[in-house]
Amino acid sequence: MTDTRHAVPERSREELLRLRRAHLNPTLSVAYREPLKIVRGEGVWLYDAQGQGYLDMVNNVCHVGHCHPRVVRAGAEQMARLNTNTRYLHDALVEYALRLTATLPAPLSVVFLTNSGTEANDLALRLARAHTGARGTIVVDHAYHGHSPSMVELSPYKFNGRGGEGQADHVAVVPMPDAYRGAVRDAADAGPRYGRMLAGAIDELRARGHRPAAFYCESLLGCGGQVILPDGYLRQAFAQVRAAGGLCLSDEVQVGFGRVGDAMWAFEQQGVVPDILTLGKPIGNGHPMGAVVTTPEVATSFVTGMEYFNTFGGNPVSCAIGLAVLDVIEEENLMDNAVRVGEFLTAGLREIQARHPGIGDVRGRGLFIGAEFVSDAAARSPDPARARVVVEAMKARHVLLSTDGPDDNVLKIKPPIVFSRANAEEFLEKLDGVLGALPVG
Amino acid sequence: MTDTRHAVPERSREELLRLRRAHLNPTLSVAYREPLKIVRGEGVWLYDAQGQGYLDMVNNVCHVGHCHPRVVRAGAEQMARLNTNTRYLHDALVEYALRLTATLPAPLSVVFLTNSGTEANDLALRLARAHTGARGTIVVDHAYHGHSPSMVELSPYKFNGRGGEGQADHVAVVPMPDAYRGAVRDAADAGPRYGRMLAGAIDELRARGHRPAAFYCESLLGCGGQVILPDGYLRQAFAQVRAAGGLCLSDEVQVGFGRVGDAMWAFEQQGVVPDILTLGKPIGNGHPMGAVVTTPEVATSFVTGMEYFNTFGGNPVSCAIGLAVLDVIEEENLMDNAVRVGEFLTAGLREIQARHPGIGDVRGRGLFIGAEFVSDAAARSPDPARARVVVEAMKARHVLLSTDGPDDNVLKIKPPIVFSRANAEEFLEKLDGVLGALPVG
């Protein structure tokens, strides 16, 4: 009875939009011209209030599939047993730290648990400042590292975007190492050449009286437009930052946990080991959770007498869910799946590209893929209008996609990593149909 | 089978401590000289690995009782149905905003959902800066507002504590309005007199070239030592801040959601309405969740073109859990319980105080209570050693408590608000026994 009294009313989309406008964060956007009211998720599918299924190729959070029964069970069982903080001892907390660090190269052995990627990147900044005694921070153009005041300052995507307040004194920005559209294109040595650009950022900080505390770099550039770092980039960049006394941070909030398929962590392909790794989104398959992993040396520098206590971070429910996500990735061989389906998808996109001149570049690793729309293939002129039209047309065919990049012309493909070959075939067929129906360039 | 392969091993306390030291945040403290390994929670009880029950009087997060079945069911059901972000429409998100704002005075009608109190206070700072165009912030001495870089700067508890880097240029600190130990004691007009001290902080900011963006104030001082704001404090303080163009923020991360019993929100007793209210800890009974509630005017100032998107914030699972917490508070009449049991506890503590000179002050509202240990009642000399001994002795009698305050001599009482009269009787009897067994002063 009491349950009925407080049942959540079902409201129409119009009513929900009206109430959102009145009572919720007014800056929050809604996906699509005609918003979706999604009520159920399962695997790679989302279902609207009418029971219509949508193939979800956007969600890099519900990483092992929406409502994965193993993850749901782990969360539900632990919620019913105990949910408290880390000032008591608990088996799941220690086990999670052991299981997570077992996937990482040896020096990355100390774990801090948070509630989000933003909290992880914020804590990482405190670690870097404590270790180096410096304040300067170098970031990659168009990067996004979080929504806190400190992380907006480290996110060119935000501070140089609409409503942004520009670059702070302690921040320097290096160009995106984009071998398709950037200053260095199509060159075998693009990686080291972009890496050497760190020197300019270090000089710029020095001129403003700052030494570098940290270089923040996503291991694959997400908001930057699904950019794959060219070979040798991080090796060169890290060497220069370290020579200047700074720490190197790999932000894998968007791309970690086996999405790239050939490795658990995307930084591994670059042949480097960061000093700090930050994690979020996929870590709990949607449960609010994040983590920082660092070396004993950096962790020790943080022991100044001030405690870092995070009320919810590392609670037994989060740890049980985090463990279940690791279990599922391993037991269902999802990294193999990401390699196989990712290769099939990328090959299929390249085959479509060959027949549709509107796609200028197709790039990807595992199930992190981008397709860049251009109006002129030779000039590589961005075509955001076409990208937008394709996203809406695919939505009409019940496939969910999004766009990003400085010109908003890159189709972002980052589905739950249970995405199958059959799902990929459905997507490719529909995309081919959508592109074939569009007027040429 | 796969479940067995990845079952979490049960480890001894010694082994867990060893592994924590090797693989987890080295700044994280463990409660008690002999740490507890807690494996199960129910209502006001926590159970260790041997099945021993402990009466939990510390946990202000598992607000409606550990593992409340209604809250667990809401979370488990929604986890199995859908967990995605707020770019799709969802009934529970809108319903939560409506239910939450229905408990608040009219102008506080716009909700932003986050994953923690820290994220809420961080977002609030962005709102205040956007609305005022100013950077200055006034905080109360010994306050704690969060663990992010920006919030450590606003937390004298941290920046003036061990390992702290001192006060930032844009921050001014006002004295704790503590009518027992502060500069103004035992005066009927202590509230307005402490309130007038905001003028000094505003002047101090002005002298450093800052206008005030916001005054952050907990509605009851938690880390400050369970201090109840004297009557008239916020009215006077808010008036001065507003006259200087700043916004007034009530931080109810620790004390909100009916803990004070006579009101849902502790600020109400002061006869004011803040411009921004921040929420956390109890909001999800342990689920990682936080919120900012503000006025349409402040929210509108935040519409600058930059989106505030929080990956996990406002997801359907968090909203379902948040709704269940509101339901339980109402249906189980927990605010009435907080009043009745709180009054009984406070009266019982005062009766004990009359027989034990080591307790200098007993103060509280509802189930937010402090008892201050002193070595000399007339001089009010803090006695942290006695507070520590009492906490350990009570733990030996299976009652969990903690201490806080600038001198760490205040016994903090903030149990789940399902705490019953029988629980209170058990606590009072045990405390009386512990104090009677201690050597006098």
Automatic annotation (TrEMBL), chains A, B:
The keyword Ribosomal protein does not apply. CDD domains: OAT_like. Its cofactor is pyridoxal 5'-phosphate. GO terms for molecular function: pyridoxal phosphate binding; transaminase activity. The keyword Mitochondrion does not apply. Belongs to the class-III pyridoxal-phosphate-dependent aminotransferase family. This is Aminotransferase class III-fold pyridoxal phosphate-dependent enzyme. Keywords: Aminotransferase, Pyridoxal phosphate, Transferase.
